[in-house]
Q: What sequence folds into this?
């Protein structure tokens, strides 16, 4: 499957997991699988919003590569640190060497629990913005809407 352009310069580059049948344990039945949603937003700079489950990193990179070289990505936005959103973060930051990881301060704590430290991390809070040049990302913290570190971009 190719990337999907949602609006000009905003693409779905996530992955489809046709095999998962129970999402979040047995809370939700997924008889036809699920998606791991990641979005590429292109201005003068490029942001990847969210990632995919780690085992689907290559599928995501393949979609991104049809649009741009993954090494051109400037920001990796982590809206949520559960593995279906952040499992690819280590792979992303290895491939996208200049990318800065953007998340809430609470997400930094959660990411450190899952992964090694040492990444270039920019923390954001409600109302903060990143200007991509032609597109602006605005952040909204949403603690405990799902998990303590959740945010919207």
A:
């Amino acid at each position: 499957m190719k990337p999907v352009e949602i609006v000009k310069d905003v693409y779905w580059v996530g992955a489809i997991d046709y095999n998962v049948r129970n999402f979040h344990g047995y809370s939700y039945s997924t008889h036809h699988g699920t998606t791991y949603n990641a979005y590429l937003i292109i201005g003068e700079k490029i942001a990847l919003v969210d990632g995919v489950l780690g085992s689907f990193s290559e599928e995501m990179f393949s979609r991104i590569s049809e649009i741009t070289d993954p090494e051109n990505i400037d920001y990796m936005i982590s809206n949520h640190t559960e593995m279906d959103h952040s499992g690819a973060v280590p792979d992303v930051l290895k491939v996208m060497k200049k990318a800065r990881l953007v998340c809430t301060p609470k997400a930094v704590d959660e990411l450190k629990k899952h992964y090694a430290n040492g990444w270039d991390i920019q923390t954001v809070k409600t109302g903060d913005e990143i200007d991509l040049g032609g597109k602006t990302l605005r952040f909204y913290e949403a603690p405990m809407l799902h998990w303590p570190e959740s945010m919207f971009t």
